[in-house]
Each structure stands twice: as structure tokens, then as C-alpha cells.
Design a protein that fits this description.
Layout: E1 2-3, H1 19-26, E2 31-36, H2 42-56, E3 64-68, H3 71-85, E4 93-96, H4 97-107, E5 119-120, H5 123-137, H6 146-158, H7 172-191, E6 193-194, H8 196-209, H9 211-220, E7 223-226, H10 234-244, E8 249-254, H11 269-277, E9 281-286, H12 294-304, E10 325-330, H13 333-349, E11 357-361, H14 367-376, E12 381-383, H15 393-406, H16 411-417, H17 427-440, H18 444-451, H19 459-478, H20 483-494, H21 496-501, H22 508-533, H23 544-556, E13 566-570, H24 571-574, E14 579-584, H25 601-615, E15 618-627, E16 629-632, E17 635-638, H26 643-646, E18 653-656, H27 668-673, E19 689-692, E20 696-704, E21 711-716, E22 720-725, H28 726-729, E23 732-733
Parallel strand pairs: 1-9, 2-8, 2-9, 3-4, 3-7, 5-6, 7-8, 10-15, 10-18, 11-13, 11-14, 12-13, 14-15
Antiparallel strand pairs: 16-17, 19-20, 19-23, 20-21, 21-22
Length: 736
């Protein structure tokens, strides 16, 4: 059933709500699905709904359960409820899935097969326990990787699967992880500890296996409200479905167009399953947006309409139409960053503030060039929800090896990498080396050299010997390789690249991209160093010390992280935030959407939802930028503008080109719909289809020059972009 918007009654308590919001707050439906678009006031609706139930419907505080995804959101919701209804919210159950499940387990510990004093272990404690069990089992932790094993265990718990439900696998690693899962379960049960994934699974199993306990909570919670429902995983949905039963009232609030955490286990299918698993579901759409201009909303609506598997809604606003989206096609990533800095200055000269601005990107590795440009322009910034590029662990690991190549007596660097990647040199060995260094007043490197002959042959001695040989081999390359080549050599020789690549978890790909970006940073530093000193560096001995000094100075500059500053963040980190001015960068096929998504519709649709989230962060002005050439993640070459740019109607965008007379070359499909003339006597138009004897058919992207020097850039279907001199290209028009 779909409810459409109606006039808002002038009620003292609810009069400031629009029609759809009013209906969501006051609906009497037992099963209510509120599709809350970006910027449509969903938190306000949730709070007002709770207040309405408490003050107008006779619902008692202890009969109401509100589920959020973060403690911060829960705290804010409780605070806002208290402002409306006062102290009657004291007995409300408002919290996260994990927090509420923990509360239930404490009350029913014995029925959940737990002692009353059971303890929760965090991720670090869980990993240490898994390492210990691997060691006790006699497995090599390089074969049975602890982090991969931990991911395996937690992933299956999130799916509601115990070890005994997994069966026997013919894949050696899976079989080993399954056995470890069994040992881990036994140990946790014996020692009365639970991890985060266990909290939710154990609470679900308590209700499933103890009908009387389930009935108690079903009879207590007459109203269940769930925020961000599109982000629920398998066990969370099962938890809610079981608790709701047939009698309780449930209101779920979510937006299938903003489901962007599939890689973290979120199931967008859950919001679709709600209609199938519960009867007589009433759907209310919150489509009036209070954040963005109508132009930005029209662009976002057009983009997301290309997703097939959605429940559908259309954002609109009573606000201003606003400016068109600005497209900028940069020559490379440095030009892209320069353009952004220039437009930031224009914004501030016009009375805007750094605080108004966010720069969004698909991958953390993109921040490096942007950070550099902002620092050079003395523009304050902060990386929101993450670390600055040179503060990331995988980057600091490589830099520690490089610091040793400049100074073998750098004790801090030595301690960081002596056992990285793991080579059997543990804390006990390192303590012995420290004692020698302290006693003889020598560096850890020298102390370790003197310590090696005193220990028996075995894993520790082999690990130390491998480390010395590795670093000494790297030293021979300092006078032979350029800085970027040395960086690549260190990554391979040390084993760091393979180590990072084989680590499990959601951030592995991002860390790999960061390592590639570090190599790119070294190459760019060498080029700028050569220009500054009017020379050509042939080996790293000339540039490595300067590079490390610049990095150290950058790491020491913390002033930009406080006060009024620009926010840099990934698109995932931006969800839930809003800014007057937004730059959405790296809009290139292969980067955004990521190349891994090209042949998987579900993944591509999640990328499109991520782009939709990015567009709807902007309140007044939105820039979309891409680079025709970008050295990224170890690759360098010509890029096609993102297909997502194609999906935004041309009338909603304007293109700028600071470096040529022609309009900015945008994506091929868009050019075909609106070809513009170049010079009056130029033989072709932008967007015109042409044929080349060798390269086949293509589309004119841009052109310059006159007479014999006239040339065009053509995007060929099979060969990509190429610049051709007209006098020799012999291009033929293709009839359309």
C-alpha cells in the first residue's frame, strides 16, 4: 500500500511537519516502511514518531524499542526525545543492535548458556586469541593466517552460521579455518568471553531456542523502530523478524538508494524482503529534500534511476533551482588538484568559508595529491574519518625501511620493521636486543648484529639473518635506482607488498592502492626535485633524504587538523553529512565506478548508489572532476570520463576548460547529443562520428590549430583516445 502526500494539519505538536512526514509519524499501520530520501528529515520523523507514541497513543516507555547503528546516533536520538517529552524517556530502550543484545544477554545469561560474569573481547583481543589457538594447534601462522581466520569466523557469525553447520570442505584453507572456528568456540565458551559478532548471534539463538524468553520480549515491546534499515545484515534482519513476531508494531526507516555497505555484509535485499515477510506493509516516501538545490536533486534522481533493483522515489525541493553542476576534465591528477584549489579560493573570496567545503573521493589513495596541493596553497584541511596519507600504517611501514637505508642506527625504524612482515622475531627477542643496546650504548641494528651469533640456529636466527640480508641488499640499490624504482624494490624485496595484498578485510584493496600511490609520490618528488636544482637524478642517494625530510615535516604539521578547515573524505565516510560546496573527484571509469564492478550488475548498482550519496551531500554547489590521465594504483594511461557523468542530463551541467579555447571534452554519449562548432573553418564538429582507415570509428572530442597544424582528439571505440593531425589522418565523416 502506498500513501501519497496530503495537507498537513495545523497541530501544535506536529504542525511543523510536511504531509509525508506527518503521515509517517501518525500512521496506525502495524507494519510501516518509510523510504526516507537524502536530506528528507528522517531523524526528525523517528524522534517525532517516538514522541507521538508516548504522548498521544498511551504507549509506555518500556514498551518501545528503537534500534540505531551507532552509539552516537542512539545518544542523539535519546537527547532529542527527552527535549520533547521530558523524563518519561528514561525507560526507553534506544541503542545499537550490539548494545541491546548485550543487555538482553546480561538479563538472561544462564538461558543463553553464559555465566553471569561473561566478558566482551574487542577485535584486538580476538585476534590475539586466534593467534594463540593457531600456535597451540601447531599450525604455521603464515599458512593459517590469523586475520583471514578472524574474518572467516566473524563473517559466518554474521550469517548466523556456527562451526558445526559448515560441514567438511575440500578446500584446505576453509577446512583449517572451520576447525579453528570450532576450537575458538570451545575456548570462548570455556573462558566465558564473547566477541562482538557473538553478542548478536547469541541473542538471536536465545530467542530462537527459548520460546518463553522470546514471548516475554515480544509482549514487552509493542513498538519497534529501526533506523538505516538498508544497512542490516543477515543476522540483524533475523533478529528483528524473530522479535517482531505477529503482534508487535514495526516501523523501519531506510533508503535503498543509499545502501553502500555491501562489502561490509549489509544486505540491500532486506529492505525488499520486508514486503514479502510481513503482510499489509504500508509504504510512505519522504521525498521532499531540505538540503540541496533542485538542480542537484534532478541530477541525483536521473543518476539513480539507472538502477533497476530499487523501490523508487523522486527527491524534490521547494528551495531554489541553483547553479548547474560544473564538470572539469583535468589533464592529470595534479591539474585536477590545482583546479580544486583555485575554485576553493574563489569561494572564499566570495564570502564563503573553508568550513563549507568537502572534497570527496572513491579511494583513500586519491587524497595524497589533494593534500599536497592544499598544503602548498596554505589551505587548512582535515582528513575526515581516516588518516592523512603519510600517517597510514602501510605507508609508515615502507618509510621505516627507507629510513634505515639512510641511517641504519634509526632505532624507531628498526623496531617498526624488524618483524614486518612476520619473520619470527618476537617481543622477547627484541627485549634482549634492547638490553644489549642499552648496556653497550649502541644502536639496535648494531646490537642485533652482535646478538645473532649468540643464539642457536632456528626460526629466530633465520629471521634476523633474513632481515639483515634484506636491508643490506636494499642498500646496494640506493646508488643504482631512481627513487620510485627504489620504492618498488623495497616493497618487493621486503615482502611488504605481498604481505598487505594477502591480508583479509575490507581495507586490503585500499592499502594496496596506497602503496602504489606512494611509488607515484616518489616519482613526482624526483621530478620536482630535479626542476628545483636544475639537474637529473640518476639514483636515490640524491633524493631519498630530501623525500623523507619532506614527509616528516608533513607529518609534523598538525595545525591544519584543528579549527576551520576543509574536509577531505571518502564517499563512504560522507554518508549522513552535508556541505554547501562539494567536489566529487576522480570521476573516471575504472576508478569510479571501480573496474572490478564493470561485469557485475549488483556491484555496479552499489557504485551508482555511492555516487548518488556523493551528489546529495552538496547543498548549493557541486563540482565533478576527472583526469584524462591519472597515475593511480600502479597504472597510468588515458581515462574515459565516468559513465555516471553520462547519466546526468546535459542541461543540468556546464563544462569548463581553463587551458584551451574549446569547451571541455566530456563523455562521448553526451557529445553526441549536443555537438558544438569549433572554429568556423574547422572541418569537424564536437561529437561528430568519424572513421579512420586503421583505427575504425570514433567520436571527435576536441581539436585545435589551423591549416596544416590542425589536429583533433578522437575517442575510437577499440583504440581509445588519440590525437591526429588532420592533414595526415584522412578522417571520413560517418552518416548518423
Amino acid at each position: 500500500m502506498l500513501i501519497t502526500e496530503e495537507e498537513v494539519p495545523q497541530d501544535i505538536f506536529l504542525g511543523d511537519l510536511n504531509g509525508a512526514q506527518y503521515q509517517a509519524v501518525t500512521a496506525s499501520a502495524q507494519r510501516l516502511l518509510v523510504l526516507a530520501g537524502a536530506g528528507s528529515g528522517k531523524t526528525r520523523v523517528l524522534v517525532q514518531r517516538i514522541a507521538y507514541l508516548l504522548t498521544q497513543c498511551g504507549v509506555l516507555p518500556h514498551q518501545l524499542l528503537a534500534v540505531t547503528f551507532t552509539n552516537k546516533a542512539a545518544s542523539e536520538m535519546r537527547h532529542r526525545i527527552e527535549k520533547i517529552v521530558g523524563n518519561s524517556s528514561a525507560r526507553l530502550w534506544v541503542g545499537t543492535f550490539h548494545g541491546l543484545s548485550h543487555r538482553i544477554l546480561r538479563t538472561n545469561a544462564a538461558r543463553a548458556n553464559l555465566p553471569e560474569n561473561f566478558q566482551i573481547i574487542d577485535a584486538d583481543d580476538q585476534l590475539r586469541l586466534i593467534k594463540r589457538l593457531i600456535q597451540e594447534r601447531g599450525w604455521d601462522d603464515e599458512v593459517c593466517d590469523p586475520k583471514r581466520a578472524m574474518g572467516f569466523i566473524n563473517r559466518h557469525k554474521d550469517e548466523g552460521k556456527r562451526a558445526n553447520a559448515l560441514g567438511i570442505s575440500s578446500v584446505p584453507e576453509v577446512a583449517m579455518f572451520t576447525e579453528l572456528y570450532r576450537l575458538y568456540e570451545q575456548h570462548c565458551q570455556r573462558t566465558a568471553v564473547v566477541d562482538f559478532a557473538e553478542i548478536l548471534l547469541r541473542a538471536y539463538e536465545l530467542w530462537r531456542d527459548c520460546p518463553d524468553v522470546l514471548t516475554q520480549y515480544q509482549q514487552r515491546f509493542k513498538h519497534i523502530l529501526v533506523d538505516e534499515f538498508q544497512d542490516t545484515n543477515t543476522i540483524q534482519y533475523a533478529w528483528l523478524k524473530l522479535l517482531c513476531g505477529t503482534e508487535s508494531n514495526m516501523m523501519i526507516v531506510g533508503d535503498d538508494d543509499q545502501s553502500i555497505y555491501g562489502w561490509r555484509g549489509a544486505k540491500i535485499e532486506n529492505i525488499h524482503r520486508f514486503h514479502k515477510d510481513f503482510t499489509d506493509v504500508v509504504t510512505i516516501r519522504l521525498e521532499q529534500n531540505y538540503r540541496s538545490t533542485s538542480t542537484i536533486l534532478a541530477a541525483a534522481n536521473a543518476l539513480i534511476s539507472n538502477n533497476a533493483s530499487r523501490l523508487g522515489k523522486e527527491l524534490w525541493t521547494q528551495g531554489i533551482q541553483g547553479e548547474k553542476l560544473t564538470l572539469y576534465g583535468a589533464f592529470n591528477e595534479i591539474d585536477e588538484a590545482r583546479f580544486i584549489v583555485e575554485r576553493i579560493r574563489q569561494w572564499c573570496h566570495g564570502g564563503g568559508s573553508f568550513e563549507d567545503i568537502a572534497i570527496l573521493y572513491r579511494s583513500n589513495a586519491q587524497s595524497r595529491v589533494l593534500e599536497q596541493a592544499l598544503r602548498q596553497a596554505n589551505i587548512a584541511y582535515r582528513v575526515y574519518g581516516g588518516l592523512r596519507f603519510f600517517d597510514r600504517a602501510e605507508i609508515k611501514d615502507v618509510l621505516a625501511y627507507l629510513r634505515l637505508l639512510v641511517n641504519l642506527n634509526d632505532d624507531t625504524a628498526f623496531e617498526r620493521v624488524i618483524n614486518l612482515p612476520p619473520r619470527g622475531v618476537g617481543e622477547r627477542t627484541l627485549a634482549s636486543i634492547r638490553e644489549i643496546a642499552k648496556e653497550k650504548q649502541i644502536s639496535l641494528w648494531v646490537a642485533a648484529k652482535s646478538y645473532l651469533p649468540t643464539i642457536p640456529l632456528g626460526r629466530i636466527s633465520n629471521g634476523l639473518r633474513q632481515f639483515f640480508e634484506c636491508v643490506e641488499d636494499m642498500l646496494t640499490q640506493v646508488n643504482m635506482l631512481a627513487l620510485s624504482e627504489l620504492m618498488q624494490y623495497v616493497l618487493q624485496k621486503s615482502g611488504l607488498f605481498i604481505y598487505v595484498k594477502t591480508q583479509p578485510g575490507e581495507r586490503t584493496q585500499a592499502r594496496i592502492e596506497n602503496l602504489h600511490e606512494l611509488v607515484q609520490a616518489a616519482g613526482q618528488f624526483s621530478n620536482s626535485h630535479d626542476e628545483m636544482y636544475e639537474q637529473t637524478s640518476t639514483h636515490s642517494s640524491e633524493t631519498l633524504p630530501s623525500f623523507l625530510s619532506e614527509v616528516a615535516l608533513d607529518a609534523g604539521d598538525r595545525d591544519t587538523e584543528d579549527g576551520v578547515c576543509i574536509k577531505l573524505m571518502t564517499l563512504h565516510s560522507a554518508k549522513g553529512l552535508e556541505f554547501p560546496l562539494v567536489f566529487l573527484t576522480g570521476m573516471e571509469d575504472g576508478l569510479f565506478p571501480h573496474h572490478r564492478c564493470f561485469h557485475d550488475r549488483a556491484l555496479l548498482e552499489e557504485e551508482r548508489r555511492l555516487c548518488y550519496v556523493g551528489l546529495t551531500r552538496a547543498m548549493r554547489k557541486l563540482y565533478l572532476t576527472y583526469a584524462e590521465k591519472r597515475a593511480f594504483a600502479g597504472l597510468s594511461g588515458a581515462n574515459r570520463p565516468s559513465r555516471f557523468i553520462d547519466e546526468i542530463p546535459t542541461p543540468l551541467t556546464e563544462s569548463v576548460n581553463l587551458n584551451a579555447k574549446m569547451p571541455l571534452p566530456t563523455s562521448p554519449a553526451k557529445r553526441r547529443t549536443s555537438p558544438d562548432a569549433l572554429e568556423d573553418d574547422f572541418p569537424f564538429q564536437l561529437g561528430q562520428r568519424v572513421k579512420h582507415q586503421r583505427f575504425g570509428e570514433g567520436v571527435i572530442l576536441s581539436g585545435d590549430g589551423a591549416g596544416e597544424t590542425a589536429r583533433v582528439q578522437v575517442n575510437f571505440a577499440k583504440e581509445g583516445k588519440k590525437w591526429l593531425v588532420l592533414a595526415y589522418a584522412k578522417l571520413e565523416p560517418v552518416e548518423q
